[in-house]
């Protein structure tokens, strides 16, 4: 299979793509199973108010998530229910798990043992679902190249 990469033809092994998709599916299935077990265990502890205990199942502090939500909300009268804060917290966890999993796959392809900025930026550039992060996690370029690009845009404008 061929792909265009910055004007060059790149041959991609389709078996790698299939393997990557299988790994993503396995990871998603594992996550669904572990989250469901944790939540059901918390609700079946015999406590009638188990729903309030779900906040302890989050990795990020509820108060910090609520504060971030308030900071981004337009206007002063912003209010969010505990359920909304919990769901945003879990969605954030899930997003970071998937992003770090994709970066881990990228680092394993490079035969590295840890994830680096290069792997994160590579995932953000290659996968369309992370396109919105391209401004925050750009590919690293050398200072000389950046200065040349800036000079060419200034003279062109």
Contiguous helical run count: 5
Class of secondary structure makeup: mainly alpha
Measured by DSSP, the beta-strand proportion falls in: 5-15%
- Unreliable sequence segments: 1-5, 8-13, 37-51
Overall body shape: flat
Residues in helices, as a percent range:
55-70%
User: What distance lies between the first and last C-alpha atoms, to the nearest angstrom?
Assistant: 39 Å
Radius of gyration: 21 Å
Largest sheet: 2 strands, antiparallel
Number of strands: 2
Nearest-integer average pLDDT: 76
- Across the major sheet, the strand order is 1-2
Helices and strands, in order, run as EEHHHHH
GO molecular function, one term: transcription cis-regulatory region binding
Biased composition (Acidic residues): 15-28
Biased composition (Polar residues): 32-48
Domain Transcription factor CBF/NF-Y/archaeal histone: 59-124
